[in-house]
Amino acid sequence: MGTASDIAGSRGALPIPPPPASLAGKRGIIVGIANDASIAWGCAKAMHACGAELALSYLNDKAKPYVEPLAQSAGAPIFMPCNVENPGELEALFEAAAQCWGSIDFLVHSIAFAPYPELQGRVIDCSRDGFLRAMDISCHSFLRMARLAEPLMTHGGCMLTMSYLGADEVIEGYDLMGPVKAALESATRYAAFELGPKGIRVHAISPGPLKTRAARALSHFDDLLSNVEHRAPLRKLVSIEDIGALAAFMASDAAASITGSLLYLDGGYHILG
User: Fold this and answer.
1) What is the 3-state secondary structure (H, E, C) of 19-74?
2) How many Å is the Cα radius of gyration of the chain?
3) Residue ranges in the chain modelled with pLDDT below 50
4) What is the pTM of this model?
5) Is there a catalytic annotation at residue 116?
6) Is 58 a catalytic residue?
7) Is the dihedral of CA 173, 178, 179, 180 positive or negative?
8) CB of 251 closer than 8 Å to CB of 47
9) How many whole angstroms separate alpha carbon 76 and alpha carbon 7?
10) What is the distance between the terminal CA atoms of the chain, rounded to a whole angstrom?
11) What is the DSSP code string of 147-214?
């Protein structure tokens, strides 16, 4: 039997594949950047570095000054307001992508919200209005985005959303967001099933805790960070760069046969039970 070099030589030079996470020629929408510490920004940085063209959004005029320099550094040709509670803003973002590109290849949904009082007490004491608002912004908005993205993913694509371990087990202080994220994870699986025949892949990424703006609203958050850092098998917290690298890979052609996954990115903390 010949060596690997002999076999390669007999067939001619083997083609060199592109980098595993190459997104050259791909275009996508990323929703949820609040500042340079946002998970969504970690995704945007990585995807831009891998060659993707991006459509980015900001929540409102107050957030715009923090997000606009980031959008400029990523060369985003589309930069628009998108508050999913404001009628028409979400639709306008997707329409802009359709007008600019004609089609998209990926979507990153990284928004979550619950009214502050609902994060300070028992889940069974949450108000009806607070529960419905948290579910609408954090979960149903992903389904609305999936519905808008579907006709634009003419050659298949990838949809990603962000969850947390508190969806699958009780994490003290995560409170109402636990049931909301559990619903989001279930919605991800159903969307993967429904969109799979069109070549559209759907995943939820479940990072460990990070010092993001949204996380600061959670009670006992500092204790949570310390616990993960000292108990996770890898003895480390994850970064937005870690999440971005995973998101870029999942949106790439290298992950074309994977869908419906819940992807833990927490230094192994989730295996502790």
Assistant:
1) CCCCCCCCEEEEECCCCCCCHHHHHHHHHHHCCCEEEEEECCCCCHHHHHHHHHHC
2) 20
3) 1-11
4) 0.90
5) no
6) no
7) positive
8) yes
9) 45
10) 49
11) HHHGGG-BTBEEEEEE--GGGTS--TTTTTHHHHHHHHHHHHHHHHHHHGGGTEEEEEEEE-----TG
Place of tokens 């002999």: 6
**CA dist list (Å): 175 to 172, 196, 245:** 7, 33, 29
pLDDT of residue 214: 63
Backbone angles phi, psi at 154, to 5 degrees: -70, -20
Exposed, middle or buried: residue 89 (CB in 10 Å: 0-12, 13-18, 19+)? middle
The residue written with tokens 């459509």 in the block is 55
pLDDT tens-digit series, residues 147-173: 999 999 999 999 999 999 999 999 988
Selecting among 164, 190, 264, 269, the annotated active-site residue is: 164
Domain covering 22-267 assigned CATH 3.40.50.880 in the classification = no
Whole-number Å distance between alpha carbons of 254 and 192:
18
Per annotation, catalytic residue among 174, 190, 264, 269:
174
Q: What is the DSSP letter of 135?
A: H
Q: Which of 189, 148, 153 is nearest to 168 (CA)?
A: 189
Neighbouring-strand partners of residue 204: 161, 262
What token pair was written down for 14? 């083997």
Domain ranges of the chain: 22-267
Q: Which of the 8 DSSP states describes residue 133? A: H
**Phi/psi at 210 (nearest 5 deg)?**
-130, 160
Spatial separation of the C-alpha atoms in residues 261 and 114, rounded to whole Å: 25
Q: Do 251 and 160 meet the contact criterion of CB atoms below 8 Å apart?
A: yes
Confidence at residue 211, expressed as pLDDT on a 0 to 100 scale: 72
Which among 167, 94, 178 is positioned nearest to 134, based on CA atoms?
Answer: 178
The torsion defined by the Cα of 36, 37, 41 and 42, in degrees rounded to 10, comes to 130
